Automatic annotation (TrEMBL):
Protein name (database record): TetR family transcriptional regulator
Pfam families found in the cross-reference section: TetR_C_11, TetR_N
DNA-binding residues: 39-58
Species, as recorded: Amycolatopsis pithecellobii
InterPro entries, sorted: Homeodomain-like_sf, HTH-type_TetR-like_transc_reg, HTH_TetR, Tet_transcr_reg_TetR-rel_C_sf, TetR_C
Gene Ontology molecular function terms on file: DNA-binding transcription factor activity; transcription cis-regulatory region binding
PANTHER family per record: HTH-TYPE TRANSCRIPTIONAL REGULATOR RUTR, TETR-FAMILY TRANSCRIPTIONAL REGULATOR
Keyword Magnesium: no
Domain HTH tetR-type as annotated: residue spans: 16-76
Keyword match Transmembrane helix: no
Keywords: DNA-binding, Transcription, Transcription regulation
Amino acid sequence: MTTGEARRPRGRPRDTTLESRVLEAATELLLEGGVAACTVEAVSKRSGVSKPTIYRRWPQRTALAIDAFAAHIAHQVPLAETADTAADLLGSVTALAGQYQGRDGRVFVELIAAAVLEPGTADLLNERFFAPRREALRALWKRGVDLGQLDPHVDADLMIDLLFGPTTFRMLLGRQIDAETALELARAALRGFTTHPTHDQ
């Protein structure tokens, strides 16, 4: 081969759709039958991706379920960024509560249960599901502080817990929370920490 000749890659070209196919199949299985239905064998059969390939990317099937659910929720409940940060936070709370009314809520509770019962799953759930979402919410809170809309003396993580905690707590008790109730609870949490009233948001 001459120095000017491009080197050709060996073997078959990398299929860039593999991950999206696997996550799509895993999401479908989660919503159809919960975490128990999201096995590597079932995902392989539905996605057309071999089990060894899936295991190389996701050594634990629970990690695959978490990644699929995280991508699904990020797509279904994106964080808004408007001129009113408090309204964006309240909208995120109500949107998530609404999303958890159906099958997504069941999957979420099952993943929480797995985090309690299966060693290592809590770390996976925190790292792959909660941490990215909380990081985005921290950035949203900082934006509100920078705009002079939110109290700079309030810890962002504390407010995230206050805003989203009631939804999670009620779901763990088997009591779904509707969007209107979630909104009222979130308004109560934000009251006193914004530079303008939240009752009209």
